[in-house]
Amino acid sequence: MRPPLFVQFVLGILGGIGADPDQLAHMKRTADRLFGDDYRFSVLGAGRHQLPLASMGAAMGGNVRVGLEDNLFLDRGVLAPSNAAQVGRIRQVLDGLGLEIATPAEAREMLALKGADRVAF
To answer: Is Metal-binding there in the keyword field (predicted)?
Structure first.
């Protein structure tokens, strides 16, 4: 593997690490110790923990992951109509915190994805 490594912190999954700010801070400290500056990270908070932990992860310098596969709701009792709605919600939060949002092209570059113009489907 060539740096930078991409680390996904997954919190709140049954049998996994708890969805708790202290646990996220521990995961970040551990990755800092193991990888130094040679990694990027994102945070996945399952279910109702998605927005708070994604926000915390972004404030810690990480990237976020949101979507219906991790959380079906926008608010308590309000089903998210789409992944786009969840992306819009986290964007509002990150904009409010004054954090920089990656463009789609920047996100593709970070994840080494080809992009729609370079696939055959």
So the answer is: yes
